[in-house]
Every structure is written in C-alpha cells, then in structure tokens.
C-alpha cells in the first residue's frame, strides 16, 4: 500500500491505474485491483481520533466505538474496489453534509468540554472534502467506463437498543428512484435474507425499517450521477457484543464470504440491465 496525496489518487483513478493507497493524511484508504462496474464503501469503519481532541472529548473511547461501524471494511475487503474511512465519525462524519459533519452533540450527549475552534473544525472538514473529491473522481470514472455502476454502502447498527424486533439487514432506500430501481432493490434485499450465519443467528432483511437511507454519501453520489445506484446496506451488530466490545471473527468472516459471492452477482446483473 502506498501513501498518496489526494491529487495523486485522483490522477491514478483518471488514468485507470490499479493501486492500493492510504491518503497522505491517513484519513481514508482506497483499493482498486480492477475496474469493474461496482464499488464497496465502509465510510464509518474508522476509529482514529486525532490526539489534540482527546482531552476535550467527553465521550469515552468505548462510546465512540459503540456508534461506529467496526469490521464493515473487513466484510467487503475481497472486492476489487473498496474505499473506507480511517477516522472516527466523532471527529467528522463522512455520512453528513459538511455543515453538519463536525458534531457538537452526539446521540443526546454533549461531545466537547469546550466548543471547538474554527481552526480545529477546519482541520476535520478538510479531510471530509478530500474524501469526496476522490469519491467524485471514482464514480465519474466508473460511469464513464461502464455506463452504469452500483455502490454498496456498508454500515452497521446497534440492534440491542431497539425495543422491538429489528432485521439483521436493513436497506435504506428513501432517496432512491423506486420506479427505476425497485425490482433490483428487492433482489438485493432477498439475497441478503438468504445469508447464513454461524451461532444460530437469524438472517432477516427489510427495507426502510430501522434506517431510511438519508446519509450524505448516498445523496452526494445520487445527486451528482444519474447512472449510479447506491445501496445503503446496514447489518445489525450481530457480529459483536455491543456492550462488551467483543468482535466475533467467525461471524465477520461468514459475512465476508457471503458478500464475496452475492455482491458481484447482483452488481453484474444490474450493469447488464442498466448500462447505456
């Protein structure tokens, strides 16, 4: 893996080079093993939290981990194109618009002992902006090459905090064109429901049950590119103990193996149907 500037990463994408890199500020990673009509993203996988913010942050390290999406990059690591965040959403949230990306409160609790200076905010927002420059270049290149592409936007959520039964998988689709994509959204939901888990974990999948797909990542791509479908795919955190901060690697591995087969099958079917 190389350490590259954003301009170097974009240049490689525009030249359709294959490469694996971390951004020069270590805020995100990108891997392109081959150019295919789909990409995977794990924008909340990161846990890094820059040291100058530590003493000012009221939330504990565990509280930050609890709201992040650990292991989501691992779940899609085998795919040819993967982009993932390295930083915690508590520093800046890649799934929120720039004006909302740096939190003042988080999940009902004040985040900072003292309000962040504009300088501190600007440091975080610069990383947010750089990430989206690369996302734009990537999708522009994939659409240009293939005519249509799909982005699998991987997230996870804390299922134990709900006071009702919730699905193992949730697809957030409220900002998608259901007249155009309704059938393929349902195909993806059905495919996810068929994934088998170890440890007697039930596999269910629903659309817009726990989350509706209102994230900035989906909206940014959908608003800028008319021939790219973003599927906000949330897995309940059945792959860990949310309260003990223990990861179940056998469950993570089972998801990774299942998605290694199901994502390309679905994506290539979509490309065949929608390419211009």
From TrEMBL:
Pfam families: FGase (PF05013). Gene3D superfamilies: Zn-dependent exopeptidases. InterPro entries: N-FG_amidohydro (IPR007709). It comes from the Bacteria. This is N-formylglutamate amidohydrolase. It comes from Flaviramulus aquimarinus.
